[in-house]
Amino acid sequence: MLVTGATGFLGRHLLGALRARNVPAAVLVRRPDEWVRQDWVSEAGPVHVVEGGPLAPDAWMRDPALADVKTVFHLAAQVKHSRVAPEEMETLNVEGTLHMVRVASALGARLVYVSSSGTVGCFRFPDVVADEHAPHAEALAGRWPYYASKIRAEKEARRLADKLGVELVIVRPPVLLGPGDHRFRSTGHVLRVLEHRLPVVPRGGMHFTDVRDVAASLTRLTELEQPRSIYHLPGTASTLGAFFRMVSEVSYTSVTERQVPNWLLEGVARVARSSSPRWLPDPVVLEMSTCYWGLSSLWSERELGHTVRPPRQTLVETVSWLREHAPRKAAHR
């Protein structure tokens, strides 16, 4: 197996899950010296390190160690919730994915592209979900550069894969939580509660799942003879208020919940777009916080064995790991 984005949160857990199933792996990393300095690489076991990135595959794709690769997991992406200078993100997320389709074609391998639930599962109202047949949420999520790049990557990768005869499987998980977020990005919402940095709670929604459950489901795609073209890996959906209350309860951290109506947040977002005061969150973040996120699956449980562990268990273990490893004040109760 070849894994891009191996140094990330999901990449770390995917490598561990592959090792548990005795599946050999190679990792694509830009800086091998930085890879070996990661304090968790022993969890991945022995892997073959390929130096390079998705945007320049000609420099590495003929590595002899990749000759037997049958599945390529493309996890590498840049996540930036802002309209400021999105060009680098768009290039990596779109062009990098298309290059990986070409790599899979050259290797005669299956490509598993990990996208985002937000490409289809973004709504104005709660209690709405998107299954694998849902259309892209371009009218809503397409306003934001990150999701626009993922929607475009899905569409263009599918067209190119069909043209080249590549077996492309698109996997859409929601927000990933759990232990081991060594970059402290995906677990940022939890970290803000632990550090008492939660001034207001928007009236939008949250959809999260455990990174370990997603990693386990991904490994099963190395075994299916005829997988579907799309799999959703849903988790737990709630309002933001309910989510932050759960974090507060499992962490024994007090949270003063100041609800803000969506009309006010949308007005503030318009102000931020025009004047961009530094003390305000990015307008994209404000706009996203007024939306709801819902995902369901027609077949991931049956075909991938995807299970969703209790959300409080995930949050307890996320909080415990953050308190042990996060910088600043997260360790203080």
From TrEMBL:
InterPro entries, alphabetized? Epimerase_deHydtase (IPR001509), NAD(P)-bd_dom_sf (IPR036291), NAD(P)-dependent_oxidoreduct (IPR051783)
- The residues covered by the NAD-dependent epimerase/dehydratase domain are 1-223
Record-annotated membrane-spanning stretches:
none
Per its UniProt record, what Pfam families does this chain match? Epimerase (PF01370)
For this record, an example GO cellular component is: cytoplasm
One Gene Ontology term of the molecular function aspect? aldehyde dehydrogenase (NAD+) activity
Name it: UDP-glucose 4-epimerase
Organism the protein comes from: Pseudomyxococcus hansupus
